[in-house]
């Protein structure tokens, strides 16, 4: 499914385990994991292969410089307190890949 979707952590786990014989984490084109938590939280602990989402001067999250979006099948953004998506609807934005937001 293309567009935005809110998923539970167990759905992310299942997505990562879909590979036949090995985890999908080893396929660099399958998934981009973006950690949108504060820097100290990322430094303390993060999901393997996750990239820290940098913030712009006006406080908006940016795509990591080495994200290679044109190659990714899925993009998952996670933080520690999101419970709903506001302003991100499939009708307004068309993307060639799926963006999922993992919630606690």
From TrEMBL:
Q: Which domain of life is it from?
A: Eukaryota
Listed PANTHER family: SERINE/THREONINE/TYROSINE-INTERACTING-LIKE PROTEIN 1, SERINE_THREONINE_TYROSINE-INTERACTING-LIKE PROTEIN 1
GO CC annotation, single: mitochondrion
Q: Which GO terms describe its molecular function?
A: protein phosphatase binding; protein phosphatase inhibitor activity; pseudophosphatase activity
InterPro entries cross-referenced by the UniProt entry: Rhodanese-like_dom, Rhodanese-like_dom_sf, STY_interacting-like
Q: Alphabetically, which GO biological process terms does the record hold?
A: negative regulation of stress granule assembly; positive regulation of intrinsic apoptotic signaling pathway
In the record, what lineage is assigned to the organism producing the protein?
A: Eukaryota, Metazoa, Spiralia, Lophotrochozoa, Mollusca
Task: State the protein's name.
Answer: Serine/threonine/tyrosine-interacting-like protein 1
Domain Rhodanese: from-to ranges: 25-83
Gene3D superfamilies named in the record = Rhodanese-like domain
